[in-house]
Write a structure and sequence with these properties.
2 strands, mainly alpha, 251 residues, elongated, two-stranded antiparallel sheet, single chain, 7 helices
Length: 251
Amino acid sequence: MVVSDRPGPLVAERTAARDEVGELLDELVGKPQITNPGWFDVLSLVGGAALVSWATFGGGPGWAAFWGWLGVVFGLVMPVRVLWRRAGATRVNLRRRRMAAHGTLLDVESSVVGEIVAAYERLTDIVYPPAGPWSIPALEAGHGAMLDVAMLLDGRAPTTPAEIEYIAARTRAMVDLASAAERQREEEARRSRLSIEEEQTQARQAKAAMADAMQEIEVTTGTGSLREMKRVLRLMRGEEGDGPNAKPDQP
């Protein structure tokens, strides 16, 4: 993992791609007991090349070509394997250096480091991105602790009791900080729900008051859309005016 220079989540180091070529060589000839080519590889390569040349240009028997090519293959196995794995190690080192340019490497294989990483990830899940006045201080404090641990270990695992206790103390504080941040987030969510409910209640009350006021105005002034619709309906039925069904206008 990489602890970024800026407060935020940890950056996972990308897992190296599977070395399929190296695995194939291991299956064919077994895992190497030595790390560099030796005299056996040189003799196999030179002897095999000599047999191939004899069979090809010197009129040698067919079996010479077969055993010659076999010797060449066995003579090249170790050099090819060494070159391939060195190239893979170079790629890994380059990737690690690029990542280190943006932060500090942290070895998370040990359990004590894994615990503080888990606590910090829980904290960042709660406070990142910052969403409240308490989020930024909590994130900066937790990030500072991770930087302290990363710089103390310098890319290696903790080995001494003092280092383990140093990390454990910050783990305990990180757990407490994450728990407090979670409680604070829940409290803010509760307050937000109450505020929304209060606003909705006030809106309903305002609408009810508006309806009552409009009804009171219609009753007081004797006007309004409801009264007018009833009057027109009576006219259409002949219940108002000079018709035989006319009735006195009702308030």
